[in-house]
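User: Hi! I'm working on a homework problem where we have to compare a predicted structure to a textbook description. Could you give me the structure for the chain below?
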Amino acid sequence: MAVPAALAETAAPVRPAVLAEAAAPGRAALRRLADETGAATAEYVVATMAAVGFAGLLIVILRSDEVRGILTDLVRRALSIG
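Assistant: Happy to help. Predicted structure tokens:
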């Protein structure tokens, strides 16, 4: 089938990479899945959120009266030795 002259002048050429992806869509999908762009950033986010959660847990534990008493007793015994 012939392409009309008006369309032939305005049509953009098809790149070989686009043709390869169209021929093998599974390969293109695998390439996108194997791409690790942003993986390090996501790992930093997970580690930061874990640290924030751990810090929050420590704050809750250290604010309890029982733990505060244990720590106060520990400091008093350490200072009375010398």
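For your comparison, note the following. Residues 26 and 32 are 10 Å apart (CA to CA). The helical segments are 5-10, 16-23, 25-34, 39-62, 65-81. Good luck with the assignment!
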